[in-house]
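User: Show me an example of a complex going from sequences to structure tokens.

Assistant: Sure. Here are the input components:
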Amino acid sequence: MHLYTLQTLRFCSSAIMMRIKTPKNGRVRRELEKRAPKLVETGKKTLILQGTKTSGTLNGVLSEIYHLKKGGAVRFTRKNDNIRPFESGGETSLEFFSLKTDCSLFVYGSHSKKRPNNLVIGRMYDHHVYDLVEVGVENFKSIESFNYDKKMAPRVGSKPFIAFVGEGFENVDELKHLKEVLLDLLRGEVVENINLAGVDRAYVCTAISSNKVYLTHCALRLKKSGTVVPRMELVEVGPSMDLVVRRHRLPNEGLRKEAMRTAKDQPKKKIKNVSSDAIEGTIGKIYIPDQKVGDVALPNKAKGVKRERREAKKKEANERASKKQKEESE
Amino acid sequence: MAMETESQKAFHVDVGNLLAFNPFHSFPSLPASRDELVKECLHEGTKLVQAVADSLFNLPSSEDVDGPLVKLPPPTTKLPREKHLPKPKPPTKWEEFAKKKGIQKRKKDKVVWDEQTGTWKRRFGYDRVNDDKDIPIIEAKMTDGVDPFAKRQDEKKKRVEKQEKNRLQNLKQAAKIGALPSHVQLAATALPITGTQAPPKKVTKDELGNVAGMAATSTASGGKFDRKLPGEKPAKKQGKHRKFLPVVEGSGIGSREKEQTESVLNKLISKHSHEILNVGKAVTMYNVKKEKKARNKRNQEGKFSSATNKLKPKKLLQKKTGKKGPVSSKKGKAK
């Protein structure tokens, strides 16, 4: 909304002259349509960036999160010293980046003596900060440190299983909030159909204590069992870390209500020329224009044309022969 | 290390998100080593994942090239949206009018029958039906002397402008309620017009730089002693603007310097001074003198002197008519 300037016409002499800007490029138009608010939303993109100082572990954490979310994440590598998510003025830069990259989730990493290995996970609504959770990372183990059979490594972009274990996620406010944010972060795209052969990863979050969560990423092994449902086996592959909840900011009640609003399901658009019958099932109508059989051009290599030519040649030869005979006779 | 065995196996399973939540598990005492903790977490995780898989694999599946395809139910956990709900576009002024009047939308064909050429032509575009340039003759009315082709073009221009204005109004209305289409942006082109109706003319940077220098030439010293602003560059042409004639004679036009000096000399010496004598004035002076002479002569002939007439104004009145007679006769005789 703040992209568009507007002044209501009060009286003619004080009107701002406005002009309509439309994209001249098809590519730009398609990109704008992708970024427009939709009735049913597809996956959120994540913005991963860092603050003034980062530690080695924090760098590892940020890059691994980026790897996990390869398809829908943007990684900024420069340091941004004017971003302070929990302060009132320090969010403008974040909101600007969110607007430009069309990301509504962000992961901001910073390291200081007071808050070592700090990670702020936040969400945006309409490119304004909606809520924030600040966690500290401890006992980080990167992907390289795990030994596993490389063949069953999860593929990029597959939809993960998510498991939350612990009563803390129900009782403690901060952990409840963290659960929601982690779900949003790890979920990926919301899909209608899923290929059962393609499920190969799972995230397990266990509430160890009232402020600590153990998060790990595992590959799935489907083992044969007697029934249709295979037996699941989890093998730790990916990064694992302890998240210590430090601060969090819940959204305003009004903003939360507005963000949780969903439109009532609109009746599906009628597909043209398709009808369903009780006996025959789905019937489709195809309209074909009348064929102009006489006007269709015959290809040169058609047998008929060849034969015509041959006969025409024969005729000519006969005529010539008859002419010659006549001449000879004369 | 003693873990609570959950009596109820009630996990919260959300198949749409492939999510499972076990709210009943807790660690009464943290395991001693990290490995054991990890093992315990994985164990719990496996149970949950198994629960989700149970529901997932039991869903009706359809065979696909890559594997069995399953239609997921919509997720049950509600998460906040990332952008606001799109607002429906408000009806435009025409749409409101059409609804009120009950005008239905008619589907337009791409090709229209053209009477003039007797072919099917496009409705708009390259070779279109009612093109302005295809009209050879327009019958002229006897009343006005206006170019009908130009008039048609002007009317079309006006129609297009009106349409653009209406479109802008509709978009402004949509933007007011926040339902602007995603590919459209409204940009302000100029500041609001105040005072005079003319929009302010845009001045370039160079022009602005020259303005102070131009104003300085109005002072007697050519802006030499004017106080300068910080950062102001010296004027391009400093001092009073004087024009000097070229040193070398120009060809074809004649020497400008010669012309200059000649005109000065003529004014002073007035050799060919046609302009100095005011011919009209000289003629009237001559005529007035002549008439005076003639009048004096007549007076002397008729009466004693013109002076007695002057001293007796009353008699002048009486004798006025008398005088007229002989003067008129005299006039007739004279010429």
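The lines above are the inputs; the final block is the predicted structure for all two components together. The two ends of chain B are 156 Å apart (CA to CA).
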